[in-house]
Amino acid sequence: MGNFFNKIKQKALAIRVIKAFLCGLAVGLPTIGVLLLLYRFELVALQPVASSLIGVGLIIGVGVLVYLLLNQSDKSLAIRLDKEKGLSERIQTSLAFADQSGPMIDLQRQDADKKLMEVKDVGLGLKKIWIYILVAVIGIGSFGISFIFNPPPVEPPPPLPETPFKVTELQLLALEELVEYVSASEMDSPYKESIATALTTFIDEIKVAENETQRDVAIEKAMDEIFKQTSDSSYGYEVITSLWSTGIDTCRLLAKALNYYEWPKEDEWDRFVEKMTDYRTGFVHIDSTTENPDEEKMKEDVKTLLLSASQGIDLALQGSKIPNEDPLKLVLTRLSTVNESNADGTRIYGLYVLADFIEKNGYTKAQRELDATISALSPEIFKALSQNAINTQTGEYAMLQLAGIFGVKAPELERPELYESTDSDQPSGEGGGGGGAIGGGPTYGSDDKVYDPFTNKYVEYGTILDKYYDIMFGGLSSGDYTDEEKKALEEYFQILYGGFEEVPEESENENN
Amino acid sequence: MSNVINNQEIEKVQMFSQKVEKVKSELAKDVVGQADIINNVIIAIVAGGNVLLEGIPGVGKTRLVRSLGRVLSLPFSRIQFTPDLMPSDVTGTNIVEKDENGRLVTSFKKGPIFANLVLADEINRATPKTQSAMLEVMQEHKVTVSNQSYKIEEPFFVLATENPIEQDGTYPLPEAQMDRFMFKLMVNFPSDEELVSIVKMTQITMAETAEPVINGEEILEMRRLASTVPVVDELILYAVNLVSNTHPELQASPASAKKYVKYGASPRAAQGLITAAKVRALMCGRYNVAYEDIDALAYPVLRHRIKINYTAINEKLGVDDVIEKIIKETKKGN
Q1: How far, in Å, CA of A54 to CA of B301, rounded?
Q2: pLDDT per residue over A340-398, tens digit each?
Q3: Is the residue at B50 inside a domain?
C-alpha cells in the first residue's frame, strides 16, 4: 500500500482521537456543570472535587468508548475511501494485494496511490467534525454556566418569633431565697460565695430579659458557673476515683468505704463504719482461715498490702486538685503515714508505718494497731467527707432549684463509677436518699422537712405539694382569688410541677 | 528490474487501449452508432467469449460482425443458418477421395467453423441438431468427427445473430446452447441521428471500408494481459451472489428473483462476469475490477441465462428490468 494511504491512516487516527476527546468533553463537562449547579443549589451534597473527578472519569471513559467505536480497520478505511471518493475499488484492491507483486499489481498500486493523491479532500468525516465540536462547545458552555450562573439567593428562613418573657415576682422571690440559702449554707466559703454571686448576677439579668432566648442565655450562664463551682468543690470524687483506679484491692476497699460520704445521716454513718471495717479486714484476710498459718508469709503479704495501700493513697492525693489544708487530704495523709500518740495515750500508726511495725512486732500486734488507727481516724475521715458532701449537695441543690424555677433541666454532676452493675452495694440513687437530681423518680428541691399546717408536723416536701395544689385548685374554682392572685398561683404551681414531674394527663383531664 | 517490467506493462496496457480505440474507430467507418454493442463485442472477443446478437433485421448485426472480421484481420467465415443446414455443413465431414496414387482414401474436409471468427447468422433458424453441433466448438474450441478431434486455431469466436420477431420456422436455442454465449447483446433500432448517418453513408457507397488494425496474436496478448488484472475477493463474491440471486429456488435470493424469475443463470455466468469485467476495467483505464464493471456487464451476461416467468411478463417487465432489480437487491461489500 502506498505511503499516501499510510498518511491518510494517520490522519484518520488523529481525527478519531480528536472526535473521541470532543465526545468525552461533551459528556464530561456538562456533567460537571450540572453537578456543580446542583451543588450550588444545594440539591446534591456532592463536593466540587468529587463532581470534577466524576466528570474527568466520564471524559476519559466516553473518550475511550468513542475511540473504540470509531475504530476501523485498514480494509474498512479503504472501502470507505473507495466509496466516498468514487475510486472504483482501487484502494481496497491495492490493500488486498499489498503483499503481492507483479506488473499489473504494481501498476494497480501506483494507479491507486495516484488517484488517492488526486483526491483534494480526503474528508474521513472531518466535515462532520463540526458536530463534535458543537457538542463539545455546548458541553463547555454548560460547564461555564455553572460558574457564571448565580443561583437565586436563598431566602433565609424567617426568624422564629421571639416568645416574650418577663420574670415573675414569684420567680424572683424563689431566686432570692436560693441566694440566701446558698449564702447561709455550710458549703466551703469560696465556692458558696461564687455561686451566690452567679445567682445574684443572674437575678439582675433575668429582670431585664425580654424574651425566652435572653432568659435561656442567662440561665445557661448561671448554671455553668454553679456547675463549675460545685464540681470544683467536690474534689472528693477525684480522690475516690483515683483510689479505685489504682487496682489495689485495699485501695478499692477504701474507695468503697469513702464513697459513703454523702449527706451525713445516721444510717450512712453506720454503713461508712461498716465499709471501713471491711477496709481493715482487707489487711487481715488470712489469719483466721488457716489452722496453721505461715506467720512469715502472712507478714509479707500484709506488709505488701499496707505499702500498696499507702502508696495508692499518696498517688490519689497527689493527682487531685484537693487543697493541702483540706481536711480530707490531711486525714488521708495521716492514714497513710501517721505515727503519733492519741489523747488517751494509745498510739496510732499509719499504713506505711504499720508495714515496718509488722516486721518488728508480728502480724497479730500489727492487726490490733491497724484497728486502732482506723477507729481513731474514721470520725475524722467522715467529718472531712461530710464537708465535701455538703459542698456537692449545696451546689446540686442550687442547680436543681434554678432549673426548677424556670422549668429547665439541671446538669448532672459526674459520679465516680466504683461499682459493677450487679454490685448490691450500688449506692447511686439509693444510698443518696431523696437528694440530688440523679437516680430518677420525683425530684424535689430539698430533703428538708417542711411544716404541714394540717397535721402540725414537719413532713417531706413532696408529700404536701399535692395538698397545696388541691387547695389552690379549689380556691380557683370557687372564685376565692382575684385575677392577680390567680395568675400568681398558676405560675407558682407551674414552677413547682415543672421542676420535678409532669402533671399526669388523666388527672389533668379530670381537673378540666 | 521491477521498473523495467512495469514500463513494459504500462506500454502494453497503453497499447491495449490504443488497439481498442483503433478497432472502434475502424468499426465506426462501417457501423454507425451502436457504441455499447461495439464495446461489448470487443470485451467478449478479448475475454474469449462468444456473442449472441439479437435484433430486428437491418440494424447492422451482420455488417458489424463482417466488419469486425476485417478489422481483426482474422480468418472469417459466415454460416447462414437455415432449417436444412446439417451439422456436417458446419463442422465439416470425412470425404472419400483419390490420393496421388489414385487410391481411395478418407480425408476430413473442414467446415466453415474452422475459422477464427465465425458469423452464425440467424442461428435460430437451424434445427436443434445443427445448433447442437456448435456446442463443442463454442466451448472447447475443437471439432470431433468420427472420433477424431480437430482443434481450432486461437483466437476463436462465434458471433451469432438472431431475429426476435420472425418466429415461424425458427428453433429457439436450447439453454445449454445459450449458456455457451458469454454475452447476449440487444441491437436496438438506431436513433434518428444515427439513421440519418446510415442513409447518408450508404448513398455514397455500400462497400465496407474498415481496415485491419489488429491480429490474432495481439488479441491473445490482450487476453493474457486482462487475465492479470487483480480482483478483490469481495468483488468475486459479489459476482457470485449476483448470479446466485437469479435463482428463485434459493432461500437467500432476493424478492424480485423469487417473484419474476423462472430459472436462474449457470455458474458460467459468474465466470463470464469476472473475465469480462477484467477486460472492461482495462478498457476503462483501470487496473482493477470495480463494482461498476460487474454491474454494467450483468445485463449482457445474464439476460440470456435467466428466464423470467409469467408474472414478469404480466407486469410488462423485461429480462433487463428484472436484472436491474436483482442488482439493486444484491449487497455490495461486507
Answers
A1: 63
A2: 887 777 778 888 888 888 888 877 778 788 888 888 888 888 888 888 888 888 898 89
A3: yes
Sort strands B157-162 and B117-121 into parallel, antiparallel or unpaired: parallel
Q: Which helix (H) or strand (E) holds A460?
A: strand A457-460
Distance from the B272 Cα atom to the nearest Cα atom in chain A, whole angstroms: 20
Domain termination site, one of B198, B222, B246: B222
State the Cα–Cα distance between residues A104 and A116, nearest whole angstrom.
18
A291 compared with A136, residue with greater pLDDT: A136
Residue burial A282-308, b: 16+ Cβ < 10 Å; e: rest: bbbeeeeeeeeeeeeebbeebbebbbb
Partners of residue B290 in chain A, C-beta under 8 Å: 88-90
The C-alpha cell that represents A345 in the structure block: 495515750
Average pLDDT of the segment spanning A24-46: 76
Residue that the C-alpha cell 389552690 belongs to: A472
Residue of A nearest to B293 (CA): A88
Q: Assess whether pLDDT exceeds 60 at residue A264.
A: no
CA distance A316 to A418: 15
**Grid coordinates representing B261?**
424469475
User: In this structure, what CATH number is given to the domain that contains residue B204?
Assistant: 3.40.50.300
Q: Which residues of A touch B6 (CB under 8 A)?
A: 103, 106-107, 110
Cell 492479470 belongs to which residue?
B228
Q: Does A97 sit within 8 Å of B289, measured CB to CB?
A: no
Chain B positions in Cβ-Cβ contact with residue A105 (cut-off 8 Å): 228, 230
Whole-angstrom CA distances from B313 to A34, A96, B257, B259, B279 are 66, 43, 14, 11, 33
Number of compact structural domains in chain B: 2
Residue percentage of chain A with pLDDT more than 70: 78
Residue B20, domain extent: 2-83+115-222
Of B288, B291, B334, the CB nearest to A108: B288
Domains of chain A by residue range:
3-148, 166-418, 449-511
Residue of B nearest to A103 (CA): B6
